[in-house]
Structure formats: structure tokens, C-alpha cells
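Model it.
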Amino acid sequence: MSNMESFSLESFSLRDKVAIVTGANQGLGMAFAAALAKAGADLFVPHLTDDVSEVKELVEREGRRVFFSQGDLTDAAYLDKIMPECLRVFGKADILVNNAGAHAFAEFESFRDEDWKKVIDVSLNACYYLGHRAALQMIKQGGGKIINIGSTLSFTADRMCPPYVAAKHAITGLTRSFANELGQYNIQTNGIAPGFFATEVNAELRKDPAFYDRITKRIPAGRWGNPCDLMGLVVFFASHASDYINGWMLGVDGGFLTTL
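Modeled.
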């Protein structure tokens, strides 16, 4: 009974934690950053594209600090800079959200090797490399949280994107491997698998009524996801409330994967 009496909503607080969120200056990553800031975390944002104004405003509106580091996650020298730079600015790293990814769409017969390599390097290899570096620091600190971003395509497949499907399937395995390796150090590794969310990446696809209607009809919720649909889960996985959850990839898809 004493353990239950000690539980409070403070278990969900991230007050004064430091979270690294890759690619948080756009897309779904921005929702992750905003949610973590609302829960009390400061943000360190490795990013590739230039515009950081919107996420900066979202984080600072919550009274939290945010630091930006621009570079290419496929560049080994840049990967080596991220953790030392975060430690220089904030002194620690409590949470890592491996959000950044890459896409390439083409017919299978003409899919280019260079596009395969780019997607795998960003969507899978960078998650391992940065996750490994973050884990070494978290071991020193006595614990931490690693959150990998998968996809509905972590569990199924679609045409015209073989490296993305392969990378997102592999993220599930990587999450379980990290959970197995790092649980002994009080580091929990879990994954979020978003379903179909209206983003810039799929803007052209959504213009095709046949595709849009086919996907929407398969979603029991009857709609595509909004970024806010992801915010509660990332806070949960980053907080002490999830301390005994390790190695899971949880879909946020409105029920898409429950249907045929």
C-alpha cells in the first residue's frame, strides 16, 4: 500500500530534465519538443534545415531553454559533437528522442542505391550511433530515457519505399536490443510508431483522393493524426511514470493496425 500512496502526478513531470530531440525544428519532432518543454524539460535540438524559429518560440513560451546544433546526422564528426556540446550547454542529458528520419519514394525497379543508403543512414544508423553515445553518458548519470521513433511501417509494408520500411522495422529491433543491454543501468528504451499524420512529407500523397480515402477508411478513428496526438506518449516515455516499461514500440495510429 505504501508504494501506491507515494504515487503522484509528479511522476509525469520532467522538471529540469534535459532532452535531446533530433530534427525537432519541423514535423512531428516539433510536437515532441513542445510536449517535453510543457512537462518541464530544456531542449537540445540537433537539426539539418535552417528554420528554428517556430520550435524556439514553442519551447521558450513554456519558460524553458533551447539550444540548436546544426549538422548532418550522417556525418560521423557531427555525431561526435552532439553529446559534448549538450554537456557543455546543459551539463547533462536525461532524455534522447531519435526523431530525425529520411524518405525516398520510387518504383522498385528504378530505386537508386544512393537513396537506399541515405534513408538507412539517417533513419537507422544515426539512431544507433547517437543512441550509443547518449547511453554511455546516461550510464555515468545513473539512468535515462531513450525514445526511438518508428512508424506504422515498423509492423507492415508499403510500396515504393523499401529502405524506409526496412529502417523502421529495424528500429523495433534496435529498441529491444537497447532495452536488453541498458535496463541494468536504469535506462529505459521505448519506441513510438506514428500512423498516418498529415505532414509536409506526405503532402503530395494526400492530394491523391484515392490514396487519402483508402487510408482514412482503414483508420477506426476516422481521421489522420494530429501532432498533439503524440505529445502525451512522449512525455510518458520520458518520465518516471514509465520506469518499468522497457523495449516496447507503441503505435499511435487511431487503430490503423487493427484493421484489414
